[in-house]
Amino acid sequence: MRENHFLTLNRALNGAMLAAVLLTYSSVFAAEIASPESVGMSSAALNSATARLQKHIDDGEIAGVVAAVARDGKLVYQVALGKLDRERDADMREDALFRIYSMSREITSVAALRLFEEGAFNFDDPVSKYLPEFSDQRVLLNSESTDLEATRPRVGEMTIAHLLTHTSGLGSRSSALYRENNVRDRAQSLDAMVSKAARVPLFQDPGTEFRYGIHATIIGKLIEVWSGQPFEEYLQQNLLAPLGMTSTLFWAEGNDADRLAQLYRPEAGELSPYAIETVPWTQRPVLVEGGVGLLSSVPDYVRFSQMVLDRGKIPGTEERILSEATAALMYENAVPEAAMPIGDSRYWLGSGWSLGGFNVVLDPSTYAYPVSKGTIWWDGSAGTRFFIDPIEGTVIVIMAQVSPSNGGGFRENFSHLVDAAIIERR
Length: 426
Fold this sequence. Notes:
By secondary structure, this protein is an alpha+beta fold.
């Protein structure tokens, strides 16, 4: 049985090395906040952002929230507002744990890029080279169908690049086809999920259409093949521990469980506790899921995002997670021309997707809130979101726990107000 991530960490790093890691990285984004004016931002405008978040709480749209803004490598804003758990009357805390769902994908994809840099694979390698069960996968005659018999032979190979850019032909964990065939279940193993995903048909031929889906979880299995280690062990040793991300884990137990934010759902004008998953996040899941399986905190995700903004360099050090050349791939749209645009409305129409697993802003005019061209970002289905803006030099991370994730537009309003706080534009 796989060990808790802290036990894995202790096996990978001796006590002295671990202490040095934590001291180095906790100092990078400690609780001390730099003056927003020191990086060309307005304290007063950021205070307005805090007030607007508080109104979302007062209006019953979210129970609580943690948000942070960094610019030029300095943390200039971090707040924890409202309640972590209203039923326990527990206040929100800056180190609260959140179900980040699809914000897990970028972490998994960056781990894959590290292995690419080490020569473990090429982007145009067929997935079947490493996972033979995908060799003869067929394609649905009608992508809306769930009829396993109504299929045709696949045209073309599914490649690693297709997985990283959601153009493999695989689909969403919530699709009718996958639900009917129990493809994704936190009570089943990663190997079982991979086998089921390969056994049901593809929705379309690889490279022909963008379809957001379970790709990063399959990447998690590939990381096991490439590294010869369990996915969570490789992730811990090669990404989370070097970045000091001690609050990013696959489940919360003991003291960690006490800082796990309660998830809420609006019902009849009130927020009620809600569980998306049948396997609770305080219990070790059988499925270690690279697509949507991580918990994290705002400070941890700021550290990760700052490393990405710094083109692979660990904040506050000269050490690297990725070379600058490999890190550049996180900012480049890699969706095949045949699959563009990746959507037909709203921000989807003006976005691409990179080999680092990030949405790439190609046309800011399609967005309902301010973003720079070239910003990379994504969010999670339980109320989390991040932005990494290489033009303005900013990292923005905001996390609440509400499903559906709209929460009265708290994330969008926060984007507007943080943008308004930028005095010196670049």
